[in-house]
Design goal:
The chain has helices at about 5-20, 35-45, 105-110; strands spanning about 50-60, 60-70, 70-75, 85-90, 120-125, 125-135, 135-145, 150-155. By secondary structure, the protein is α+β, with helices and mostly antiparallel strands. β1 (about 50-60) and β2 (about 60-70) form a beta hairpin. α2 runs antiparallel to α3 (about 105-110). This is PepSY domain-containing protein.
Length: about 160
Amino acid sequence: MSFLKSFVLATAAAATPMAAITAAPGDATKPEKVQPIVKIVRQLEQSGYAPFTELSMDDGVWEAEVYKDDVPYELHVDPKTGEILSEHRDDSEPRPPQDAKPLSEILQLLAKAGYDDIDDVSFERRYWEIETYQKDGEHEIHVDPMTGKVVSDRLDD
């Protein structure tokens, strides 16, 4: 066996345990064949859940912090069907401004701008803080809640 072939095989064998660790249960990875995040959010908004304060993929389900009838809730939502798996009252969180765009509109605008692989959304002070994956890695973007415009985009290290 050539030195190069031996080196490639040894490198692949050494990387296998690391791949198993990164894919361990409990990882915040998305399950296969999930609905687009904008569709899940729109479905929840149409069911009376708004405004959102946070949305993240956690243990293979969407975890949403959202209001309904002015009461804060935490929801666990199936990413394949949009079904609410659990709902319980939560602590109050700062909300986007009252005349802000709904989160589904923000996400639709971001998708049109090429930000469609999103796994974490949270309202922080004045902006939506969103983690999105691009070709060059994970980015943290800040989005104006009134206009839906990206006001900053930085590679998240």
